[in-house]
Amino acid sequence: MKFKDFIKDKIILIVSIILAVISIEILLLAYKIDLIIKIYIAVIILFVILLAILIEYTRKKHFYNQLKENIEGLQEKYLIPEVIKTPDFAEGKILKDVLQEIESSRIDNVNYYKNIQEEYKEYIELWIHEVKIPISASKLIIQNNKNKVTKSIDEELDKLENYTEQALYYARSNAVEKDYIITKTNLKEIVNGAILKNKSTLLNEKIVLEINDIEKTVCTDSKWATFIVNQIIQNSIKYSNPENKKIEIYAKEKNDKVILHIKDNGIGIKKGEITRVFERGFTGENGRIIGQKSTGIGLYLCKKLCDKLGLGIELNSEKNVGTEVKIIFPKNSYITF
Amino acid sequence: MQKILIVEDDKKIRQELESFLNKNGFLAIGINKFDNIIQDILDEKSDLVLLDINLPYLDGEYICKEIRKVSNVPIIIVTSRDNEIDELMSLNYGADQYVTKPYNIQILLAKIRGLLKRNQNAGTTMEKIDCNGFVLNLAQRTIEKDNKQIDLTKNEYSILYYLSINKGKVVSRDEIMDYLWESEEFIDDNTLNVNIKRLRNKLEEVGLVDKIETRRGQGYLLK
Question: What is the pLDDT of residues A11-25, one digit of tens each?
Answer without folding.
Answer: 999 999 999 999 998
